[in-house]
Amino acid sequence: MTRADGPVTPPVVLTVAGSDSGGGAGIQADLKTIEACGGFGTSAITSVTAQNTTGVQGQHLLPIAEIEAQIEAVIEDFDVAAVKTGMLATSEVIELVADHAAVLPNLVVDPVMVAASGDRLLAAEAEDAYESLIAEATVVTPNADEAAVLTGRDVDDPAAAEQAGRDLVEMGADSALVKGGHVPGDTVVDTLVTEDEVTTFRHDRIDTEATHGSGCTLSSAIATQLAHGDDLSAAVGSGIDLLASAVRYNVDVGEGPGAVHHLVRTRDDAARHPTSEAVERVVSALVDADVSALVPERGMTVAGTTPYAETPDAVAAVEGRITRTMDGVRPNRGVRFGASTTVARALLAAREHDPSLRFAIDCRLTDAVEDALASLGGAIASYDPEERPDGASADAIAWGTGRAVETSDGTPAAVIGREGVGVGGRVTLLAADADDLVSRVETVHEAVKDGA
């Protein structure tokens, strides 16, 4: 049987950059990110580097004619919707790209000068050449160190980043995104400057050295979103959100610091169906075991996150909770992402301190249930809502769960909260996978029955 084809037409994005044999940065990072963001990645390789997670061992610049041939081969055949540049290495390569700028739409210039390992990737004499390419850029994306080189201005706080961005716009760029990852502080502030406005993007700093490929990933994501037709602010915001997840859930490979997780969103999206199925399996097990003794008066919520969840809409839960009936326990409705607020936020708060946690369930708190928690054999944590400081999360349960996990001697199997919700408070059982959660619920339930 002959089947009809079903072609798709993703926007084409061209990356002009160096190759990273370690796979975390350069062309390799660009193509992974472009595809993850829904684009079709094409490339023009400028330099071949021998590098890994510990540093750059060598690099070889391709002949200018070969670099030009790659660019022209792509733009002659493909309807290129956006272009991003990375490691250009020399003034000749920078000038080559600038000469082709008229046919390079949505040009995102990432002025790569130094690798994350500290190894130099741009000849010193080539720094001045960037001015001609910046003048052609839709957006230029330097980190603080690169912005300092390009503008001669120390970038050590958001105000200086804004001024450096204005300097780059004055050089001719349509806009400049001065990244704040190299600026000290618990919050990373990225500053987008155009002729008309300044927009800042803030996110918590991730405690990791695994940032290899971060600049490549961000610029590639921005270029791909521009290729999709997003406006500049939306494209930059989407790219920054992706990078924040990619850095937090980095890839632990090699002997040195790992690389950012270019496919973090793709993998997370792919996990949504298995996650909801896992929550459904937990619910079925609880119904079969008839865990009525553990169900609060308000009902019980089972929640499960995707592997890289950051917000409640990535948490699957029973809609309407599980309640007690004359015939045992029953879910009111099915499992849906975004169905939970309280338990979802508590689980996300726990994951801030142990990202391996993915499942949670809230149980009633009685003396019998509290005594039964000892049967779990793991740490049991608790929190006092009266200790919540002014200015902390308005969600007392999320704050308390996070505080309990943070201060526990090891990740707790359960968190006790005495905030007066339900019968004397609540118990939240936590687990890394669905089977462990079921096991913990059944263990506590059996202990409660044996003690009755």
Automatic annotation (TrEMBL):
Thiamine-phosphate synthase ThiN domain boundaries: 279-442
Listed name of the protein: Phosphomethylpyrimidine kinase
Pfam families in the record: Phos_pyr_kin (PF08543), ThiN (PF10120)
Gene Ontology cellular-component terms listed: cytosol
Chain ranges of the Pyridoxamine kinase/Phosphomethylpyrimidine kinase domain: 20-261
NCBIfam families: HMP-P_kinase (TIGR00097)
PANTHER family (UniProt xref): HYDROXYMETHYLPYRIMIDINE_PHOSPHOMETHYLPYRIMIDINE KINASE THI20-RELATED (PTHR20858:SF17), PHOSPHOMETHYLPYRIMIDINE KINASE (PTHR20858)
GO biological process, one term: thiamine biosynthetic process
Family matches, as InterPro entries: Aldolase_II/adducin_N_sf, HMP/HMP-P_kinase_dom, PM/HMP-P_kinase-1, Ribokinase-like, ThiN
CDD domains associated with the record: HMPP_kinase (cd01169)
Record keywords: ATP-binding, Kinase, Nucleotide-binding, Transferase
Superkingdom in the source lineage: Archaea
GO MF: ATP binding; hydroxymethylpyrimidine kinase activity; phosphomethylpyrimidine kinase activity
Lineage: Archaea, Methanobacteriati, Methanobacteriota, Stenosarchaea group, Halobacteria
